Amino acid sequence: MTGNITFTMIKPSAFEAGYTGKILAMIEEGGYKIKAIRKIWLSKTMAGHFYEMHVGKPFYEELTTFMSSGPIVAAILEKENAVESFRKFIGATDPAKAEKGTIRNLYGKNLGENAVHGSDSDESAEREASFFFSFTERV
Ligand code: CDP
Ligand code: MG
Fold first, then answer.
1. 54 labelled catalytic
2. Could you report the per-residue pLDDT of 60-71, keeping only the tens digit for each?
3. Of all protein residues, whose CA lies closest to atom 6 belonging to ligand 1?
4. Choosing from 12, 82, 117, 133, which is the catalytic residue?
5. I need a labelling partner for 66 at 20 to 30 A (CA). Which of 33, 48, 53, 57 fits?
């Protein structure tokens, strides 16, 4: 069975470039309902915890430095088959390989600064959603 929520972040580069409104409009027009949303500036420590599954990978240091370099917008999204459909919707991790018209294709700069995050499984979606939002913020 597939879940109906996923978690996203508008990453610091896209937020700083002023793409938040356009990205959120695409998300809503794509049929995703915003269940919770917040602007937040992560510390390096918090970014490190969020991406703990990538500890030891060559890009971990750069990733956590980048993700704590400025504010982000974090959100929980609801749609049928949310995780899988949203990953297709945002496009491949590398914007250069992302399908035309996807969020990463339109607003990503490079492999690291790829505009948005999308959960990779229902378990990750739940973990990531509760990393940022309390129960009362999600109803
Ligand atoms: O975000 P996604 O699930 O598509 O990719 P990931 O493999 O979970 O990697 C998390 C994030 O690390 C990516 O979105 C990129 O911002 C960054 N990354 C990177 O800078 N260099 C890589 N070789 C792989 C990922
Ligand atoms: Mg991932």
1. no
2. 999 999 999 999
3. 93
4. 117
5. 33
